[in-house]
Structure prediction request, 857 residues.
Amino acid sequence: MASIRPTVRTASLLLRSSARRSHSTSASSVSASEVSHFSSLASSWWDPTGPSRVLHLMNPLRHDFIASCLFDGAPESTLKRESNPNPLHYLDVGCGGGIFAESLARTIPLPDPGAQPGTETVTRAASITAIDPTPTLVQIARDHARKDPKVSAHLQSGRFRYVNCTLEDVIAEAPATESSSDVGGKGKMVRREDGFDVITLFEVLEHIDTNASRSPLSFLTDCLRLLKPGGWLVGSTIARTWPSFLINQVIAEAPWPVGVVPKGTHEWRKFVNPDELESWAREGLMRCSDLEQGSVMRSGSGALRGMRWKCAGVVYFPGLGWNFVPGSDCWGNYFWAIRKGV
Amino acid sequence: MRPISTSALRPYVCPSCRFAGSLNRRELGSKPAPVTDIYDVVCVGGGPAGLALLAALRASPATSKLKVALVESQDLDKARSWKLDPQHFSNRVSSLTPSSVSFLQKIGTWERLDVSRTQPYQGMEVWDGETGSKISFDRSMETSPFEDLRTVATMTENANLVQALLSRIAASGDENLSIFSNTTVSSIENGGTDEPDGPDLSAWPVLSIVPAANAPQSSASPVKIAARLLVGADGINSPVRRYADIATEGWDYQRHGVVATLSLADQIPAPFPIGTRTAYQRFLPSLGGPIALLPLPDNHATLVWSTTVENAAYLKSLSPGAFVTMVNAAFRLSMSDLKYMMHMERPSTPAADVNEDPHESELTWRLQHTPPVPQLPPMVTGVQEGSVASFPLRFRHASTYISPRVALVGDAAHVIHPLAGQGLNLGIGDVASLSSTIEYAVDHGMDIGDTLTLERYTADRWATNAKIGGTCDILHKLYNVRGQGPVAWGRSLGFEIIDRLPFVKGFLMRNADSS
Prediction:
């Protein structure tokens, strides 16, 4: 119910183009019908009463969930707590039209000319990089960001960047030696040498084709590789249960005025249950450790030391909006988070 | 919700500036365009609602960093230096409900008020002048022994409140704060794009503000300020509402509210517990509305008498002695007696001797033939010089309180009949809701001018205000039916039932309070 067609397409494109590795230079891997589909959605992406409304309404809960993760475990080492109270670097994977990325960028404080140490914000964000493989969506996101002078200023200074690339492109990059060398946002370099503090993956996972060569497991592993030790990988998805079948497939995709989601948005069998996700997260962390160490020995449970798993269900009440409902993570929409051990 | 393409792009130009504005623009064409200052919140209107919003935003840690501006056409320095001696009271007084008071405490304003000039009251006597049915509220009876006396409301002069709000705002420092006092809005238009890569302000309201005509530096050129969120706290004829193209419906009651500051005789017997005060309201169907006497400190009281335009003009033309007599008569005499006294010849010259005033002798004579009722207020003994005034009563309700980058609060959003004394309380309720909406938005990375943010505010307030405004309207209409017909019988039955069921009464009081 939360996800709408644009996100689906984003996710599928993300995967399809990454499999071919030919997306970034041309639109050849993207079918003409999909491009025209996005063009038709472009005007409604930021329409508060349009098809993305349910997704817009969910956005504040993403902030609440991230805040609860940061409260449970701060990504930066407690030993060298920086003088800057807002040091966190964010990466938003599959940003689409930028609903979440722009709202996070708005919480980044503007540089204070008085050079006083600012106060701590809720997100503690210092920068955000948002990636998406679809040029049209990135353009929508950039155009919308210009409508807010504060966000626009962050785009100009490079604290907020939209990059049109896939997750695999980022992995393929050699880690940037100095992240600030790319200030200005014109370059394509996304990867940070010391990794990101928070990586977000909202409404992406449930659209991943588990039968393809690229399963959610390798996708998750790639995300975890970009994460700083102690950092959080945060996302939201839908559980594969009979209530979610009823709500997401039967009610939400029903014809107007009952339905709130375009037909064909969700495929119930691709939904991910929390327990499956948790086991993928464990496996992903171990694979991640293998790649980092480059040793012939496979990593064992030692790679999971310090790992944290969080999960919280949300329910949409028509007319009232989204709410966290304890125990509802086994019914339908839920937020999840994995913390990489220090 | 209106589509941005049509109405948001329609500029508002105030009628008096329409001509001058076009001349100015031609002049400006030769000069480089003035630099636009960008604010997070621009509040038009520096009355109690606008100032309370500013004070609330400055008081909350989440919103204190927002860049805010206030535009007020009056000189706020006069409001800052307002002072009256303890025996004189302004005639613009509002009854603040306990929830309004606790909001003002929360934003650090109540402690800056001159509390000795405010008067809480615990009891209320309301009765029907036609049928005599009555209802009395006494909140002091609900008080547990471990707390202060519960109040119905606290009478507060608007000037006292405005002064406290200004002092609270001044105490928050002047960082990110601009107060344009003595300044009017000459036009509101949508911005544009200054540079190709720079911010795009085409959906943002940009205000041109000029010093008011009576201001010392009235020749200065207009300043342009852009608003992420433009708040209209600019009263019943709100220019901000017109810019946003928000429809408003309503009607004029063809009634005026006559206000005055009065002094009272001592209450006999003395009230118990000591220090408790009572408000009195008597519905006068034949004269067009209720008369209310609300307590002020030291045996003073403020009068609000809703009556027809002719009666209001008659009352204002009376000598102070005759005015006082009419107020006393209005609480005591029958409808027919009152109607007669409303048409008595006024003496051509002010009476030299009070005893010769025809109103006075008429009241004395008629009182002997009127059976007394137990709930009478103390006799009014005097009226403060120059405090008698009147204002038209109207009903207005905007179809919505929001539009992209625009929110309305207070009288710009709703004007109601004053018979329940709820007008300012609704405005403060709006401010409490809007400021907490902004707070939530800032904490969650939302754009505070976005419809998705503001719809929380209008969803919270519109129905509440419609309910209270509608109730006052129904009461007004019910108590304008004269005579002893079925309507009078029905409303009296309702009064009597409510008066005899304590839990219903308690529920009503709490409901009025929590609004």
